[in-house]
User: What shape does this take?
Amino acid sequence: MKTPVKILLDRKREGMELAADEIRELIAAYTKGDVPDYQMAAFAMAVCCRGMTDRETLALTESMRDSGECLDWSDVPRPTADKHSTGGVGDKLSLIIQPLAASCGLAVPSLTGRGLGLTGGTADKLESIPGYNASLSLADFKRVVAECGCSMTVQTAEIAPADKKMYALRDVTGTVPSIPLIVGSILSKKLAEGAGTLVFDVKCGKGAFMKTREQAKALAAALVGGAKGAGRKAAALVTAMDEPLGFAVGNALEVMESVNVLKGVGRQPEDIVELSVEFAATMVSLAKGFTMDDSRARCRENLANGKAYAVFADMVRLHGGDLARFEADNADGGAAESVELKLESRGGYIANIDAEQVARVAFKLGAGRAKAGDAIDFSAGVLLSVTHGDRVESGSPVARLFAKERAGVLDEAAADLASAFTVTAEPPPERVLVIGG
Ligand code: URA
Assistant: This one.
């Protein structure tokens, strides 16, 4: 290190701006193992307390990106784009948006993750499809994108290894909630993935990582600023995460709901359809230069005419997956046991379904993992039968809970789930899905 780490720490502690080269050198040395964890933990804490300028955040992000392999899509004859979500309850939007955007002429290479705690991971949802290989090599990832326009696979160890090391350290040192560090972490992986257009879904609310609008808007602005600073086209929408998205929460149940949306069968979850069109249209508009109205119209058309589903089905096949179970009428997630939850209170209107409470129940049923590497029950979860604003009577069914491995916890989980529903005598105000852009 040209400047000793101790000096960098002194300066950052005092709130001074570090030079881009100093940050690059620090991250490269830490990735190689030349800077110990205790110094990087002190650096992360100093950043948490003092923040970073935009220049510093960009240098951090680019050096984390450059700690590993960066993918090149210049041989793909389509504009490349991806969408990233900070994660929410019932958030299966990627399963719909990525193939929908691909059906409109984009190439969508999407590196994704597994869930931890209450947060679900797109890779887990996809792995609930029998045979789906979500651990492709980078070469196979590129082949699938070239063949069908879209691939979703787990980020490999070659992508942004600095982030893997830094995130593990931040997780145990109280340094996760810092916007520059979050931007460095999220954006370094997305930049390494190589898509020319990046669209961010920053969730905000009780069931989200960002609890307040101010925090969510600040993260959205920082992600977009960083992505543009690194030469990408970028946009972000801040979206509500106080209530679950759609009716299904749980891996296989969410695949089933996504298939139903892509095929246009069954009761359509309006929130999922609206957000899918909005995000896919934003990707198409940015990547192709079409107006938003035109892009929305193309997306709605490709949902209705089955082209988006055809891309999804091709992608699943190329990943080795078999969708037969999800294409059957009355398919569920394949759970051995289920129990129905009926409303015990007086009738009225569903004014709120507490996303965090639903996530806790799904976790208890076995849908999530407490620590990395834990097994999960793909079939477990909650299938709501009502949504915001629905009229319900006393005794109406409001949800069905599913579990295979933990059938014994179903009744207790149903009792916990009951408290997630708020019922009011008057219809509630309409749900606002997009809070800001
Ligand atoms: N997700 C990430 O990938 N990194 C963070 O720091 C926070 C959320």
In short: The pocket of uracil is lined by residues 167, 176, 181-182, 185-186 (CB under 6 Å). Residues 341 and 418 are 7 Å apart (CA to CA).
